[in-house]
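Worked example 3 (structure in, sequence out).
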């Protein structure tokens, strides 16, 4: 994935070029994504991060609107996309607490159409894992979990999941440094989860998700020196899994 600072500089240039002021609407995603040279999934992730900083407002069905002036918008460039080790550890802990619930709720509520979309997203992920292209892997993982959250029929959970998977330097580095065996395990977990959803097995879906997050927490510690929180570390000891 292109660095957030680079994307935000391009986005700032577009805001300046269109002479956009607070309250004005940004160009639509289908126009903005090619201008920035990113996928629409990546663009949405950038916009959600800017919304969390109260720099833009995303209105479903209407578009994305500028909240602040260009100068303030450019100021966010220095910090966007960066997680401290502690923040990354807390993000992993939040994922461990929340995503098993999302998986269980999705097993109860997801429809056939969304399960088919999950399957398609996983096929796309298999291709990106094979290519080893980190931007594609990240986009496909985000797409997979967004669809999973949509299966809960709870838009708040969709927003929470998108926030948990917001791009950061630590997250990108962890994905980049996964071994091929670890990438295979990541893909296999997705396959098992889809099967659990088809079977409406909420307990198994939640269990798969717990192990998934523990695996990723292990990878973050090995590759990015992100020490697991006490809660996640205790869970790793309890499961005694082979996280390598």
């Amino acid at each position: 994935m292109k660095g957030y600072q680079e994307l935000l500089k391009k986005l700032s240039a577009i805001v300046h070029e269109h002479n956009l002021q607070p309250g004005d609407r940004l160009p639509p995603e289908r126009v903005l994504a090619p201008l920035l040279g990113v996928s629409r999934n990546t663009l949405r992730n950038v916009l959600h991060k800017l919304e969390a900083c109260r720099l833009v407002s995303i209105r479903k069905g209407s578009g994305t609107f500028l909240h602040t002036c260009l100068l303030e918008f450019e100021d966010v460039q220095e910090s966007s996309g960066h997680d401290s080790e502690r923040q990354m550890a807390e993000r992993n802990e939040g994922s461990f607490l929340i995503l098993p619930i999302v998986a269980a709720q999705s097993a109860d509520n997801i429809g056939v159409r969304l399960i088919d979309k999950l399957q398609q997203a996983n096929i796309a992920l298999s291709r990106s894992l094979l290519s080893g292209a980190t931007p594609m892997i990240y986009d496909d993982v985000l797409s997979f979990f967004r669809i999973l959250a949509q299966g809960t029929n709870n838009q708040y959970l969709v927003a929470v999941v998108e926030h948990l998977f917001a791009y950061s330097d630590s997250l990108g580095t962890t994905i980049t440094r996964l071994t091929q065996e670890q990438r295979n395990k990541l893909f296999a977990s997705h396959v098992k989860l889809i099967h659990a959803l088809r079977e409406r097995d909420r307990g198994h879906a939640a269990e798969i998700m717990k192990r998934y997050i523990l695996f990723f927490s292990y990878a973050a510690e090995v590759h990015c020196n992100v020490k697991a929180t006490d809660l996640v570390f205790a869970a790793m000891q309890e499961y005694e899994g082979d996280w390598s």
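Notes: The first strand starts at residue 56 and ends at 59. The mean pLDDT is 84.
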